[in-house]
Amino acid sequence: EAGVAQSPRYKIIEKRQSVAFWCNPISGHATLYWYQQILGQGPKLLIQFQNNGVVDDSQLPKDRFSAERLKGVDSTLKIQPAKLEDSAVYLCASSLGTYNEAFFGQGTRLTVV
Amino acid sequence: GQQLNQSPQSMFIQEGEDVSMNCTSSSIFNTWLWYKQDPGEGPVLLIALYKAGELTSNGRLTAQFGITRKDSFLNISASIPSDVGIYFCAGRSGDSGAGSYQLTFGKGTKLSVIP
Fold first, then answer.
1. How far apart are the C-alpha atoms of A102 and A65, rounded to whole Å?
2. How large is the average pLDDT for residues B10-32?
3. Alpha carbon of A74 to those of A33, A49, B6: distances in Å?
4. Do B108 and B87 meet the contact criterion of CB atoms below 8 Å apart?
5. CB-based burial of residue B41 (10 Å sphere; 0-12 exposed, 13-18 middle, 19+ buried)?
6. Cβ contacts from A onto B, under 8 A
7. Of A45, A56, A42, A50, nearest to A100 (Cα)?
8. Which residues of chain A make contact with B98, given a CB cutoff of 8 A?
9. Tens-place pLDDT, residues B35-46
10. Beta strand spans in chain B (E)
11. Which residue in A56, A99, A103 is closest to B102 by CB distance?
């Protein structure tokens, strides 16, 4: 069974630039999550989708972050404009449903300079 | 927001030794999870605990869900070099009606095993 796929693996941008991350969840998984993991910290949930609807985006900085999952499968997370403090690993995870355990992708390491 | 206090922050042990780490919170959780994260990888689920007092094993790993639902511990017996990594506890709570079960992670315990 293929795992959660994320791209790119690494990205370096200058502050105030825009960046987008892509995630392809495990086939058949209805729930998709985006987490932010700052160096030395545990992952923090940014947004949770159930199919193509948002279930929880309470910790998403909506002034600069946006995410979509238009067809209920792949998802993109965008940051516009990026700040230095956005430097982190962005992890995508998916699960069969809201009550099932989540499987994580390898993450995208973002460095904002 | 909810916070998890995970300790120790890091530990160095000799191969073959047993390891114990724990997680405490001021909030009640419905589920406790333990993950391991290797460098450059996403977290991998090790053990999931669903009931207060539950004790669950997965090979050399044993974890318990505290009676108060505010703590959990993870033990690793007879450590080996591949146990090296960062171990995260995570607590899950939420509103079943809203369908959101937000997972809160601790800051991790970095384990180093000396051969």
1. 22
2. 95
3. 11, 11, 33
4. yes
5. middle
6. 53
7. A50
8. 55-56
9. 999 998 999 999
10. 4-7, 10-14, 19-25, 31-37, 44-49, 55-58, 61-65, 71-76, 85-92, 103-105, 109-114
11. A56
